Amino acid sequence: MSADSTAGGQQHPLGIYLKIWILLFVLSAFSYMVDYLEFQGYLRWTLILIFMFLKAGFIVAIFMHVMWERMALILTILGPPMVLLFFIGFMAIEGDYTFFARVDFFGADPNAVPNPVVHEAAH
Amino acid sequence: MSENVASGIAAPRPGLPGLVDDWSSDKQTYHVPWGKAMMWIFLVSDTFIFSCFLIGYMTVRMSTAEPWPLPSEVFALSFFGSEPIPLILIAIMTFILITSSGTMALAVNYGYRKDKRMAAILMLVTAAFGASFVGMQVFEWSKLIAEGVRPWGNPWGAPQFGSVFFMVTGFHGLHVTAGVIYLCIVARKVIRGDYDKKGYEIVEITGLYWHFVDLVWVFIFAFFYLW
Fold first, then answer.
1. DSSP B176-213
2. Tens digit of pLDDT for each residue in A21-30?
């Protein structure tokens, strides 16, 4: 823990902000490239999640100074949202069940493709 | 107040022992300005709101048997008659928001150095980036509305696409708009010298809100636009 964080304020060298800033730019470029290079399937989803969590982690840890806070505040911030993992799990099971009910009992076509998107030429 | 975290201990201990000290000292638990603690509590509750939106989005997207429109094509844009570039406006908006997060971090830094002029200027630059982000979002909304996207349907596939899009990006845009106003108000008070005696924690607190807005966009970008 740095000495100044005990005073309530967070003061750190400018360099670390600039480094993280550049890193966030690079990570954003990477996540955009996932779409631009048309990666599909598990590779796409894995890369999206890796870049997302890295970006979110750096923003929270450095820009929001959480890594320099005292443990009592860190756990108050990061602890409660952990229950969301259960929520995500429950709703994923529920969504899956609804989908298969619609396919199995209501005759929905699971392999339907969306209509092509046609944009106006001049805008 | 940090010198009396726990009885008999001069300096607060870091890490888990510090957690025990902070909670068992029968005194103030969080050794931060109250404004900062309250901002964090607000942000944690806001986390739950956005999480509910995104989890709701996950549920409708998993459960709909109708095909989900391809965001890569829906949000493609052509410049000067070029081939449509996938997601280009969203990518630009992402970069703008990250840039604004960087200028905000610098504003916090200059605030603590008591350089109030630089802090205020950087906050106004942050607000300007935020305003341009909202402007692009308005452009995106009007384009999609012109193409027939509604909260109850769209020309391409699952009707839930529109409702999720308008609700999630709308609520995020509302946060950005509020952040721009908040930044302008605090910047004005900083330059006026309102915090000369109180200290510049307020810039950090405003920064927390702004970085949170950027953080939410990271998740929206990943789950709504890229997935």
1. HHHHHHHHHHHHHHHHHTTTTTT-SHHHHHHHHHHHHH
2. 899 989 989 9
DSSP B176: H
- Average pLDDT rounded to a whole number, residues B115-134: 93
Its ipTM equals 0.86
Please give the structure tokens belonging to residue B7.
């009885």
Residue A117 placed within a domain:
no
Greater pLDDT, A10 or A26: A26
Inter-chain CB proximity A76 and B69 less than 8 Å: no
Query: Is pLDDT at B9 greater than 70 in this prediction?
Result: no
CB < 8 Å from A in window 155-194 of B:
155-158
Do B185 and B204 lie in one domain? The reply is yes
Distance from CA of A87 to the nearest CA of B (A): 8
User: Residue A35: its chain B contacts at CB < 8 A?
Assistant: 72, 86-87, 225-226
| Average confidence score pLDDT of chain B | 88
Q: Does any CB of chain A come closer than 8 Å to the CB of residue B29?
A: yes
Out of A107-116, B181-190, B214-223, pick the least confident. Answer: A107-116
Q: Is B175 found in the same domain as B66?
A: yes
In sequence order, which ranges of B64-159 are alpha helices (DSSP H)? 71-74, 88-112, 116-146
* Residue to substitute from A23, A59, A67, A113, interface B, most B β-carbons within 10 A: A59
- Domain co-membership, B25 together with B75: no
The shortest CB-CB distance from B98 to any of A10, A24, A103 is to A24
Beta-bridged to residue B150, according to DSSP, are B153
Backbone angles phi, psi at B10, to 5 degrees: -70, -50
Residue range(s) defining the domain that contains residue A20: 3-69
How far is the C-alpha of B151 from the C-alpha of B89, rounded, in Å?
21
Residues A12 and A62 in one domain: yes
Q: How far is A20 from chain B (nearest CA, A)?
A: 9
Question: Which tens digits make up the pLDDT trace of B151-183?
Answer: 998 888 889 999 999 999 999 999 999 999 999
Number of domains in chain B: 2
pTM of the model: 0.88
Contacts of B49 (CB under 8 A, 6+ apart): B171
